[in-house]
Amino acid sequence: MQITKAEVTPVELKLRRPVRMAGLPLIKQITAIFIRIETRQGQSAWGCTVANPDLTGEKPEDVIGDCRECALLAPDLHPTNIEYSLNELASKIKASPSAMCAFDLAFHDLLGQAAGMPLYRILGGYRKRIQTSITIPISPSDESVELARQRASQGFRILKIKGGLDPAEDVRRVQAIHSLLPNHILRLDADGCYTVQQAVDVARALKNMLEMLEQPTPANDLAGLRQVKELSPVPILADQSVRDTATALELAANRMVNGLSIKLVTCGGLRYGRQIDAIARAAKMATMVSCFIEPALLISAGLCLALSSPNVRYGDLDGYLDLLDDPSQPGFTLEDGWLETSDVVGLGYTVAL
Question: By percentage, how much of the chain surpasses pLDDT 70?
Answer without folding.
Answer: 100
